[in-house]
Amino acid sequence: MSSPSDRAVDAPVLLVQLSDSHLVAEADGAMFGLNTRQSLVQVVSQVQAEQPHIDLLVATGDLSQDGTLASYQAFAQATAGIAAPMRWLPGNHDEPAVMQQAAQGTQWLEPVVDIGAWRVTLLDSAIAGSAAGHLADEQLQLLERSLAEAPHKHHLVCLHHHPVSIDSSWMEPIGLRNRHALFELLARFAQVRGVLWGHVHQEIDRQAHGVRLLASPSTCIQFLPCSEDFALDDRAPGYRWLRLMPDGQIETGVSRLADFSFTPDLDAAGY
């Protein structure tokens, strides 16, 4: 496996995003009746079939639902067949200390990756005990350093919580609380090309604040877009691929499982 820094600056970079797997310690653990480990394995199999040459795999939070070491080990095992460097960032259901334990001896939690003509910065927006997100001063300082140190690279910023409204009333209070601080910082650096996040369990692709704004499906259950109250969508689990071009353009798309059928058990354990 090559290092991300080995990628030629004049070649496109293929990044795959997995998000919101919500694994638990038990192999038969389910969310609303859907076995989250099984759906992750299915999505990973589709990634392997569709993306034979991946430069970077990014997991944008909520890898775990119960914060157990076994759940992170299961995520690592499920993704082990993807021959690419991997990075994790925490979501509101994750336990950062346990993630650290699971990632010991790896670079999975290293927050800055230089790859080709790009720099990818991964931020921790999780607040202990809260579903909402916040970028602490140290995270904003990390981002500022990352941007300032690489003025000639194109930048992709990754986090868990949505930094813009997604027109879903029940999710509005659990997004990034200090989103204005993030965008005020990004506005100072013209080389920022995109912001990528998870948390919302749905596909979003917009242009705002001068950057591409992208969110992606969960590898398990999906949330119904533009919903007033909590509601599930019947769309299939999936992943996002991003082709980061040497000129700063982003080509991207979402791939979902085919022939997927799931009837949620709303009385079962949920989000």
Summarize the topology:
Elements: E1 13-18, E2 30-31, E3 34-35, H1 36-50, E4 56-60, H2 69-79, E5 86-89, H3 96-102, E6 112-115, E7 118-122, H4 137-149, E8 154-158, H5 179-186, E9 192-197, E10 204-208, E11 211-215, E12 222-223, E13 232-233, E14 238-244, E15 250-256
Structure in words:
This is 3',5'-cyclic-AMP phosphodiesterase. GO terms for molecular function: 3',5'-cyclic-AMP phosphodiesterase activity. InterPro entries: Calcineurin-like_PHP, CNP_phosphodiesterase-III, GpdQ/CpdA-like, Metallo-depent_PP-like. Belongs to the cyclic nucleotide phosphodiesterase class-III family. Keywords: Hydrolase, Iron, Metal-binding. The chain has five helices and 15 strands. The chain is 20% helix and 25% strand. Helix 1 runs parallel beside helix 2. Helix 5 links the parallel strand 8 and strand 9 (192-197). The protein has one domain (13-256): 4-Layer Sandwich (Purple Acid Phosphatase, chain A, domain 2). It has helices at 36-50, 69-79, 96-102, 137-149, 179-186; strands at 13-18, 30-31, 34-35, 56-60, 86-89, 112-115, 118-122, 154-158, 192-197, 204-208, 211-215, 222-223, 232-233, 238-244, 250-256. The protein is an alpha/beta fold and 271 residues long. It has a six-stranded mixed sheet with strand order 6-7-8-9-11-10, with helices on one face.
CATH overall fold name: Purple Acid Phosphatase, chain A, domain 2
| Number of domain units | 1
Reported for the largest beta sheet, the result is: 6 strands, mixed
Alpha carbon gyration radius: 17 Å
In percent, how helical is the residue content? 10-25%
Whole-number mean pLDDT:
94
CA(first)-CA(last) distance? 36 Å
CATH superfamily: Metallo-dependent phosphatases
Beta-strand residue fraction: 15-25%
Query: How many distinct helices?
Result: 5
- Strand order, sheet with most strands: 6-7-8-9-11-10
Number of strands: 15
**Which term fits the overall shape?**
globular
Give the CATH level 1 class: Alpha Beta
Based on helices, strands and strand pairing, what is the structural class? alpha/beta
Low-confidence stretches: none
The CATH level-2 architecture is identified as 4-Layer Sandwich
What is the succession of H and E elements?
A: EEEHEHEHEEHEHEEEEEEE
